[in-house]
Amino acid sequence: MLMQTKPNLTLSREDFPTDFTWGVATSSFQIEGATHTDGRGASVWDTFCEQPGAIADGSNGSIACDHYHRYEEDLDLMARLGVNAYRFSMSWPRVQPDGRGAWNEAGFAFYERLIQGLLQRGIQVHITLNHWDMPQALQEAGGWANRETCGYFVAYALEVARRFGRYTQSLCTHNEPWVIAVLGHELGVFAPGLKSRKTAMLVSHHLLLSHGMAVKAIREAGIKLELGIVLNLSPIYPASDSEADLQKAKIDDGLNARWYLDPLCYGRYPEDVLSHLGDDAPTFSPEDMATIAQPMDFVGVNYYTRNFSSSGNPWDVNSTGNEVTDMGWEVYPEGLTELLCRLHQEYGIQCLRVTENGAAFKDEMVDGQIDDERRESYLREHIRATHDAMAQGVPVDAYFAWSLMDNFEWASGYEKRFGLIHVDYPSLKRTPKRSAKWYQQFLKA
């Protein structure tokens, strides 16, 4: 029997620890724009957007939300929301156009202004180093499939940590390495648009290796800040009780979750997944695995929905009877509770953060207002799911709503809206939605 969403029971901020972190999240390519401004280099997503048919609406990130020029307005919106933390990503090609060599001081100056603006408003700084927009110059030298990229990433991580570590609460190495590896290098639907499982698995290994190398280097440099990684994770269920579906679900979970968690936590890849991959598995050494398994201060969890595995026909998510978002993803908050409990119980992770959680819906502006009750409900139910995990002893210390505002939603272009704040793209006017006002009231309770 499939579980149904719990009823909307009253929950307030006072039900969480007083030092619990409440935030919003964004990423550089999705909001900044200014892709040719102040010496920024091209990223793989700039190049990918030029490929015919790559982006659903034929758009690109050249303007996006123009956050690069409107960041003060956006910081004021955050302050009015009442969040005490902001998770954003740094654009590697903005601060180092070629991914190696000279630093771009104009790019670093932008992030200095952004960070100081956050601190002036009493908002914690949580930086992600790699949210998918690697410099195109490095991609032309092999990108994440080239082991040398790991060294370039470490130099970038160290430079950011040296410049901003004293202001920064946490530093995340990579956001969702599965997406970069699988969607970008195996399925080809995200940048850089390659289609090779062997390459994808090598990329995944280098992402994990560069994470461990960067964490080790920052700690050896004596820079004090919280270090971790962010993974996109979902409970995966078999679509039926057939042995074929049970096995398919186990392997799919292995490729999505255990392939990343096992090396990070145990210093090894799962044997059943290595066997499944065969010749497509990457070559690695015991030293690689020891480097990957650096102790972490936190693991970030990006959760949107659950998934089903079928050895035959694709699973029809509509058959669950639960609501489905504009992305076609089932609304299933219980999956977040289940996931957080698993990470603590199975992997012993002592600090978990919900680093992204949100939903895309077709918002409609009526008389200058956006009544996005479904997004409000989604956030409310997933905050409750987070609380349910904490009530079972899971150490969760933060929740970041995705996203602060509507933005460039990767291959979907501007057709999908996840924001608490509506962006009218022709005018770039920002308008808080009903969900933003609910979050504001929740945080002020």
Automatic annotation (TrEMBL):
Classification via Pfam families: Glyco_hydro_1
Molecular function terms, GO-annotated: beta-glucosidase activity
Reaction catalyzed: Hydrolysis of terminal, non-reducing beta-D-glucosyl residues with release of beta-D-glucose
PROSITE patterns associated with the record: GLYCOSYL_HYDROL_F1_2 (PS00653)
EC number, UniProt record: 3.2.1.21
Keywords carried by this UniProt record: Carbohydrate metabolism, Cellulose degradation, Glycosidase, Hydrolase, Polysaccharide degradation
InterPro entries the UniProt entry points to: GH, GH_1_N_CS, Glyco_hydro_1, Glyco_hydro_1_beta-glucosidase
Protein family according to the UniProt entry: Belongs to the glycosyl hydrolase 1 family.
Entry-linked PANTHER family: GLYCOSYL HYDROLASE, LP05116P
NCBIfam families named in the record: BGL
Protein name per Swiss-Prot or TrEMBL: Beta-glucosidase
Organism expressing this protein natively: Limnohabitans lacus
